[in-house]
Amino acid sequence: MRSQKLRNLDLNLLVVLDVLLEEQHVSRAAERLAMSQPAVSRALARLRTMLGDPLLVRTSAGFVLSSRAQLVRQELDVALRDIERVIEPPDFDPATDDSLIRITGLDMEIGLYIPQLIKRIRREAPNMRFEIVRQENDSFPMLENDEVHFSLSGLAPLSAQHSLHRRQIDEMDVVCLMAESHPLAQGNLTMEAYAAQPHGLVSITGHGPGSMEHVLAQHKLTRTVALRLAGFTSVADFLEGSTLIFTLPARIAEKIAIGRKLCIRRLPEPLVAERVKFFIYWHQRYHHDPKIRWIREHFHHVAT
C-alpha cells in the first residue's frame, strides 16, 4: 500500500515544484506556468509543508535552492518523465511493430477475410505476426478470457455484451447448396420441396436449432437435420452425390463450390430471410489500444 503522504499528493504540485526549482523565482515560475503569482506562492507554501523544508531560501542575491531542494531536483525530472510515460498512450509504429495478433473464427469465414487482411497489413507492418486460433464452441468467451484479440463471427454474443465491441465487415444473402445431381438442382424449388429434403447444418456447438427452423415454423413447416458439422471444411464432401441440402451464406457457399460438383440455388421466395451480417469483435480492454485500433481500420478493406 502506498504511503498516506503519496495518496494525498496533488500531482500538479510536482509540476509547479519542477518549474520553481528550475527558475528559483516565483514570478518567473508563475509566468511559465500561466498561473498567478499568488497561486504559485500558495503552491510553494503547500510544498514546504509537505516536504518539511523551505526549498527556496532567500538571500541578498535572490532565492537559492536548499540542500533538500537540490536532491529533489535531481530526481524530480526523472519522476515526472516516468509519470508521463504511464499516462500517455503507448507508441505504435507499424513499420517496426512485431506484435503477435491472435484471431479466431470458423474455418471458411477465416478463409474469406483474414488472408486479405494479413497481406494488406504486412505491407505496412512487415514484422507483425499472426496466429489463427482454433475456435472451440462459442468464440466470445475467448475474447473475455484474453485468449484472442479478434473474433470473426456472424453471431451475437449471449453474454458479456457490455464488454465487447464490433464492426460489420460484410453482408450477404443466404442460399441453398446441393449436389449437381440433386433432384432439386433443376426446376422449380418450392418451400415444401425444400423442407422435405434431408438437411445439413453447420453448428458451432453441435446442438440447438438453426435459424431456418424459425423461418419454416412461420409457414407451419419443419425440416429434418440429418447431419451436423462443426465447421465448413467438409461440407462439399458430404454434399457430392447425396440428397443433402446446406443453407449457407452466399460467399461461403461459393467458396465451398469451387471445383466441386455442386449447385447453388436461391432459397424459395417465402423463405428468404434477413441477410447474414459478419462482424469483427474485440474486447473493451483493447478498445483504445493504438495497435488494435489501427488493425480495425484495415478490416474496412477486406470484404469483396
**How big a fraction of the residues is strand?**
15-25%
CATH topology of the largest domain: D-Maltodextrin-Binding Protein, domain 2
From the spread of the alpha carbons, the general shape counts as rod-shaped
Number of domains: 3
Multimeric state: single chain
Strand order of the largest sheet: 4-3-5-12-6
Number of strands: 12
Number of helices: 12
Order of helices and strands: HHHHEEHEHEHEEEHEHEHEHEEH
Let me know the average pLDDT.
Answer: 89
Instruction: Label the structural class.
Output: alpha/beta
- Give me the CATH architecture of the largest domain, please: 3-Layer(aba) Sandwich
What can you see in these coordinates?
The protein has 304 residues and is an alpha/beta fold. The chain has helices at residues 4-7, 11-23, 26-33, 37-51, 67-87, 107-124, 140-144, 191-196, 211-218, 235-239, 250-257, 290-298, and strands spanning 56-59, 62-65, 100-104, 129-133, 150-153, 164-172, 174-179, 198-202, 224-229, 245-249, 262-266, 276-283. Helices cover 39% and strands 22% of the residues. The strands form three sheets. The chain has a five-stranded mixed beta sheet with strand order 4-3-5-12-6. Helix 2 crosses helix 3 (26-33). The protein starts with a helix and ends in a 6-residue tail after the last helix.
